[in-house]
Amino acid sequence: MDKLRPLLLIFSFFLTPSLSFGQNKILKALTPDYINLQYGGSIGYVSAGVGYHFLGEKTSLSFNYGFVPSSKGGPLNILTPKFDYKPFNIHFGKNVVWKPINPGLFISYTLGRNFDKKFDPDQYPEGYYWWSTALKIHLGFSTEVKILGSQKSAIKAVSLYAETNTNDLYLISWFENRTTTPISRIFFMGYGVRLHLK
Amino acid sequence: MKQFYFYLVILAAFSFSCNGVEFSPNQKFRDGTPQDVNNTEIAKLKQKSAGARIRIAISSDTQRMYKEAQLFVDQVNARNDIDFVILNGDISDFGQLLEFEGIYNIYSKLKVPFISIVGNHDLVANGPYIFRRMFGEFNFTFTYGTIKFVCFDSNSREYNFNGAVPDIEWLKANFKLDPGTSNIIAFSHVPPNDADFDPKLRPVYEQLANSTPGFLASFHAHQHQPDKTYKPYNNSVPFIITNAVLKRAYTILDISNGQIETTPINF
Q1: Which Gene3D superfamilies does the UniProt record give (chain B) (predicted)?
Q2: Residues contacting B248, CB < 8 A, separation 6+
Q3: What pTM did the predictor assign?
């Protein structure tokens, strides 16, 4: 947890709606485009994060912290930078936009003593275990409905989304068993809300 | 509108083909994860009565090779002469819940009980928690007919050779014939002559096995090689290293009249 504390501080700083400090340019730049709250999706029982658009609204990068309590198979603390690409917008009237299918790439980093970027070279000969227990690369697909609100309010729009994802190790296992295992077996769901601040 | 239906089809395809919510690939359990499997299987074994000859199918090292595991289970189910099955470690590869569940789902279709022992790959990441909750203890014993089976954790490298694995004191206490038993057979994943077995404890274990009255053989896995037997001393009890499910092989162990016979099977 000690390792985590400064990171949590940074996150809580981001999560504070900083609109009232509009005059401060740095703060304005730091104010996220959206706040993300998610259930499941392989990055926590619940996770929260901040996201920024870049190269327009179709691409975004978010930073998330997720937690799995003991009662749900944890304790696990997970940090996840995430890249989303939302190529399609389908409008329903003035205020509703459906983003039907959005690929995403994210890297989950599980904190804690049981997890390492690399296996300890003092304990294992080189190449004994070749993968990382802490880092996983995930591939996701989401679908999102964005409901636009007033441009004057702090929350300009709200999105609801569902996402299915898998990860590198699941994909490797699936590939080696591809003649007998359907690929759907390695995809898992997550659901979330996005509060758009800009 | 065409585009709309196209998206709808994609959506339906991926939302209906999913397996529910996952909190992390490293989570220790989810809803419906089986628990206490070894005790359940040992209880099933107690319902059976052993004949004069006990026949066991020894399997190991499934390591997320679900196809091979399924072939093994089909083979055992096709023959009616097996008393029970041993799964001698490395059930998973990356120590992930999905892999343990994947192999459990296949092995649970066996018509005979199966008993699982912890392997080094099962002790990676959250593997120790997953194994303990799903299967049970790392060191345990059970009895079938007049044979006492002693199953233990010999994955010394996973504990950085701390001298506590294998647990010699526990083995001393359990390498003892109970009333009604005449022989002992041991199972553990890493063989004593392997670099992953604590080198300081290797002679201790070998001597202990050899000096235990009624001790028939010590069975191991881990090496994914055709069956091998070694004897550290003249007239020693045999230390037998069996092949791997991922190599499409298992071993039949016959026990009768205090004698053992092993037959490797390739499938």
Answers
A1: 3.60.21.10
A2: B68, B71, B72, B266, B267
A3: 0.89
